[in-house]
């Protein structure tokens, strides 16, 4: 009997889609969750990566972990807990979702950390895996289109929108990332795999203007120069992967598909 695959963050935006793909592929899937509810066709295990409660039970009989749980503040803590437990359980493959630019965006000051701590958290989690005894795979992707849409919605609530000058993003569809993660989870550990970016890079203002056009609204834009080394790295394209623009769905197609954008 094949060992189970455990998905952390399996009820979230990305994790739930990974779970669906794995179930469709015939895998035995478990989801680590705080909730009592989750996707159909899977075993739910109550657990908390921040404290370690329930993790050992969830990992018993697991061959692969797809680690989708995380946050700007908690990636390192949660990954440290998971790595220790996975080592004890003899897990054969840990697959981690990271971000393009994790090692290229320097987070050296409090200001950097406030705006771009996400990159540092992802890199710290990567290092925990790289320095462990666990076989692993790491997939770095650009920002999700769906996450950028949430940001655009929030920014559009104000009549005046501060827009970072020179900052570009290369959003990728979350479902395409989920498909790649499922493929990797069903394969052998591969270390740091090829990055994955969306088909087009946009200035921040272009992304928001596209959203405003789709929702038939207008706003005043005020350019803002973001200080700090991390912001400078973003302006230089450290968060982009032009040679791996393998995503298919465009930002415009996402907006067109969202009737209530």
From TrEMBL:
It holds the Pfam family NAD_binding_10. One of its GO terms (molecular function) is protein-containing complex binding. Residues 9-147 form the NAD(P)-binding domain. Coiled coil: none annotated. SUPFAM superfamilies: NAD(P)-binding Rossmann-fold domains. InterPro entries: ComplexI_NDUFA9_subunit (IPR051207), NAD(P)-bd_dom (IPR016040), NAD(P)-bd_dom_sf (IPR036291). This is NmrA family transcriptional regulator. It comes from Arthrobacter livingstonensis. The lineage of its organism: Bacteria, Bacillati, Actinomycetota, Actinomycetes, Micrococcales.
């Amino acid at each position: 009997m094949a060992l189970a695959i455990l998905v952390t963050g399996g009820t979230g935006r990305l994790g739930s889609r990974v779970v669906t793909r794995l179930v469709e592929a015939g895998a035995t899937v478990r989801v680590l969750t705080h909730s009592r509810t989750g996707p159909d066709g899977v075993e739910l295990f109550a657990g908390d990566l921040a404290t370690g409660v329930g993790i050992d039970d969830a990992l018993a009989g697991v061959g692969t972990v797809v680690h989708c749980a995380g946050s700007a503040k908690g990636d390192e803590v949660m990954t440290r807990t998971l790595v220790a437990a996975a080592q004890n359980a003899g897990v054969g493959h840990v697959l981690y979702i990271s971000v393009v630019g994790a090692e290229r965006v320097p987070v050296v000051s409090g200001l950097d950390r406030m705006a771009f701590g996400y990159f540092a958290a992802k890199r710290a989690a990567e290092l925990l895996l790289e320095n462990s005894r666990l076989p692993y795979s790491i997939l770095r992707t650009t920002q999700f289109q769906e996450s950028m849409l949430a940001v655009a919605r929030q920014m559009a609530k104000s009549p005046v929108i501060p827009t970072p000058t020179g900052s570009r993003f290369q959003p990728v569809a979350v479902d395409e990332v989920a498909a790649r993660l499922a493929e990797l989870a069903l394969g052998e550990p591969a270390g740091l795999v090829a990055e994955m970016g969306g088909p087009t890079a946009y200035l921040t203002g272009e992304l928001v203007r596209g959203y405003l056009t789709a929702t038939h609204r207008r706003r005043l834009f005020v350019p803002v120069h973001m200080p700090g080394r991390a912001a400078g790295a973003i302006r230089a394209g450290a968060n982009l992967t032009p040679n791996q623009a393998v995503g298919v769905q465009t930002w415009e197609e996402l907006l067109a598909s969202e009737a209530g954008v």
